[in-house]
Amino acid sequence: MSEQARPADAPLALTAAVIARDEAAFLAGCLESVAWVPVRLVLVDARSRDATASIAARYTPHVYQEPFRSFPQFRNRALALATTRWVLFVDADERVPPALAQEIREALERAEPDDVAGFWIPRRNRICGRWMRGAGWWPDYQLRLLRRDAARFDPDGLVHEVPRLAGPTRRLRRPLLHYNYDTLAEFVAKQRRYATLEAYARWRQGAPAPRLRGLIGQPAREFWRRYVTLGGHRDGALGLLLAAYLGYAAWQRTRLLARLNQDRGCEPPTTAGAAR
User: Rounded to whole angstroms, how far apart are CA atoms 214 and 206?
Assistant: First the structure.
């Protein structure tokens, strides 16, 4: 039976999957925002030191504590544990508002069995107490609603993973809300970790050593892209500051990639430091 032809009162074939480590402060709000989803699955990093697992258990019996390997491998594990046709990935610091929930229901009710493999969802980011307007923070499209049999994450990725889909995608209109960074110190620390992981990911993929001019060109291009092309200037002084630091992070990434190419024998770091 196609999903379009199923009875109106039949439950959605949907699982909400959350990957969490030390997320006791955020997880309850996240799971409450997906209470309308028939199945909720929480994959907890076994190194969590707070009440993440016990909080998850209040909202769902589907809680799994496992050793962390990488975000792509954890997401593939969630796809393997899910039994529904569709999986919605939500991070602990994200919320699914009612308007997006309704749009997801309607999209899945209309979907034919094999005409779409996933949906991009626009995401609004809140940084330092402000909802951002530009610089890629809005609309920050995320490929999060996936047909389980058509999705796979590259296990060699380290951060900012995007699934490979066997089929076409569509876009939703209503936003996912992301309570991203409370302070500038948190933003700086996270971008430093991301720069390190991205450099190692490129190195593992065989990226050549950047040229000297790349140490200047890459940061300049990233600043221009964020502040001008993507409209970071619309966020005033905060937009300028964030764009400037993202340019600096591009310089850190480029410099580390150059160093790694000088010493091909070093080992990549654990991905633990990039927990969202």
Answer: 17
Domain limits, the chain: 3-173, 183-274
The strand order across the sheet containing 86-89 reads: 62-66, 39-45, 14-20, 86-89, 142-147, 118-121, 169-171
Answer whether 219's CB lies under 8 Å from 253's CB.
no
Architecture of domain 3-173: Alpha-Beta Complex (3.90)
pLDDT tens digits, 212-260: 777 888 899 999 999 999 999 999 999 999 999 999 999 988 888 888 8
Summarize pLDDT for 60-96 with one digit per residue, the tens. 999 999 998 888 999 999 999 999 999 999 999 999 9
Q: Which secondary structure element, helix H or strand E, spans residue 187, and what is its range?
A: helix 184-204
Question: DSSP 3-state assignment of 26?
Answer: coil
